[in-house]
């Protein structure tokens, strides 16, 4: 059974370098990714995996992308972004008429593909809106919930605010003073060491015994690593 805690993307292409590139790139962005190198394998994968988005090459041996798109759209709820090496209007029209939701010409920008995937998710899966996926974390600001590795973390209100602040600023070094002002408020008059106490509690709940997820940079502050 496919995991439901993150967005799922199926990449279908007969070029191994594209499959490897998108598998790694989309995975690093927090998506659950599966790949297939031909149409028959893709259809079998899709029925079990139930992808939210399919990135689909047109020119493949055997069953081409047009036929894969037609069958996908008739069997599962998914958004299809078609890829082609040819900038032909007829190809785009044919794909759109078969149910494709978007179209990109090879070679393409990875950042543009990400933006198109996110647009399709917003438009076609609005019930999943308001959820952010950052590496192994899922943030739901509306529900004030954070999942890690698919499991809901049991957090106090302050623990939630602290972890949320660290995550949305992942990669940046945040000083204790910055954290106190953002999480506890400008009028907080307590000791800065309170930050250490809460970071320790978060590490325990994350199983971060080696401090690889929430890093301490002595004399500077803390930094969250997603990868």
UniProtKB/TrEMBL annotation:
It comes from Acididesulfobacillus acetoxydans. One of its GO terms (biological process) is regulation of DNA-templated transcription. Pfam families: Response_reg (PF00072), Trans_reg_C (PF00486). It comes from the Bacteria. The modification 4-aspartylphosphate is found at residue 57. GO terms for cellular component: cytosol; protein-DNA complex. May play the central regulatory role in sporulation. It may be an element of the effector pathway responsible for the activation of sporulation genes in response to nutritional stress. Spo0A may act in concert with spo0H (a sigma factor) to control the expression of some genes that are critical to the sporulation process. Residues 128-226 form the OmpR/PhoB-type domain. PANTHER family: REGULATOR OF RPOS (PTHR48111), TWO-COMPONENT RESPONSE REGULATOR ORR33 (PTHR48111:SF1). Residues 128-226 bind DNA. CDD domains: REC_OmpR (cd17574), trans_reg_C (cd00383). Keywords: DNA-binding, Phosphoprotein, Transcription, Transcription regulation, Two-component regulatory system. GO terms for molecular function: phosphorelay response regulator activity; transcription cis-regulatory region binding. Residues 8-121 form the Response regulatory domain. This is Stage 0 sporulation protein A homolog.
């Amino acid at each position: 059974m496919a995991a439901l805690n993150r967005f799922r993307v199926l990449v279908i292409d007969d070029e191994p370098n594209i499959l490897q590139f998108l598998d790694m790139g989309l995975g690093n962005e927090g998506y659950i990714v599966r790949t297939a190198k031909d149409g028959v394998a893709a259809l079998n994968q899709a029925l079990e995996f139930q992808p939210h988005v399919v990135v689909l090459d047109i020119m493949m041996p055997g069953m081409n992308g047009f036929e894969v798109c037609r069958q996908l759209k008739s069997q599962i709820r998914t958004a299809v972004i078609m890829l082609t090496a040819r900038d032909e209007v007829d190809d785009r029209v044919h794909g759109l008429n078969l149910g494709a939701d978007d179209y990109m010409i090879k070679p393409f920008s990875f950042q543009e593909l990400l933006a198109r995937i996110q647009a399709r998710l917003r438009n076609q899966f609005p019930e999943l809106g308001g959820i952010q996926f950052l590496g192994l974390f899922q943030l739901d600001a509306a529900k004030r919930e954070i999942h890690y590795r698919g499991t809901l973390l049991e957090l106090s209100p302050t623990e939630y605010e602290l972890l949320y602040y660290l995550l949305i600023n992942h990669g940046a070094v945040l000083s204790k003073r910055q954290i106190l002002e953002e999480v506890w408020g400008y009028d907080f008059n307590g000791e800065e060491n309170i930050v250490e106490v809460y970071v320790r509690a978060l590490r325990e709940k994350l199983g971060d015994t080696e401090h690889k997820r929430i890093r301490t940079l002595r004399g500077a502050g803390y930094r969250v690593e997603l990868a």
